[in-house]
Amino acid sequence: MISMASAEARTPGYDGSPSGERRILLIEDSEVLSRRLVDLLSEPGRVAVAAHAATQAEAMSRLQEDLYDVLVVDIELSEGNGVAVIRQARQLYPPDTQPLIVVLTNYASDFVRDHCFAAGADYFLDKMRDISLLKAIVADGQSKWSPPRTSH
């Protein structure tokens, strides 16, 4: 169940990492899935999982410490929830540095999807059906409705 937020909800992605790599904050409480996602998403010189958080508190701390191009967010964390992290990220980042936010969840209902988009998610992916699409979405870094990124 891949879904994208409407054009009105999109914000331009942060594309300012000095190395040129797209920097990901991975928010996932499963160690096994986290390792799998790091392997799937990492592409030296292009995409790097720069930080990981397993709880809402860890994710909030990482957001305070650094800027990320992409947040990959699990909704149901062992401590806390990803929706609060999405809201916090949208409040913390200035308009010109908003990250792409991709929800990756086992709770792929219409209600949860709508709740995530209302909080500020750009994409909503079902872990069981859509994980293969994640790499392309993260590498592209924006939805088709986003303004084009500028080169630095």
Labels describing this entry:
alpha/beta; 6-stranded mixed beta sheet; Rossmann fold; single chain; disordered C terminus; 37% helix
What characteristic shape results from the CA principal axes?
globular
CATH topology: Rossmann fold
Largest sheet: 6 strands, mixed
Which structural category do the helix and sheet elements fall into? alpha/beta
CATH C-level label: Alpha Beta
At the fourth level of CATH, the homologous superfamily is Response regulator
Distance between the termini: 34 Å
**CATH architecture descriptor:** 3-Layer(aba) Sandwich
Helix percent reads 25-40%
In total, how many domains does the architecture comprise? 1
Describe the structure.
It is a single chain. It contains 5 helices and 6 strands, in the order E-E-H-E-H-E-H-E-H-E-H. 37% of the residues lie in helices and 19% in strands. The protein has a single domain (14-140), classed as Rossmann fold. With 152 residues, the chain is an alpha/beta fold.
Question: Which helices and strands appear, and what pairs or packs with what?
Answer:
Elements: E1 3-4, E2 22-27, H1 31-41, E3 47-53, H2 56-65, E4 70-73, H3 82-92, E5 100-105, H4 110-119, E6 123-126, H5 127-140
Parallel strand pairs: 2-3, 2-4, 4-5, 5-6
Antiparallel strand pairs: 1-6
Helix pairs in contact: 2-3
Give a brief outline of the structure.
The protein is of the alpha/beta class. Helix content is 37%, strand content 19%. The chain is globular.
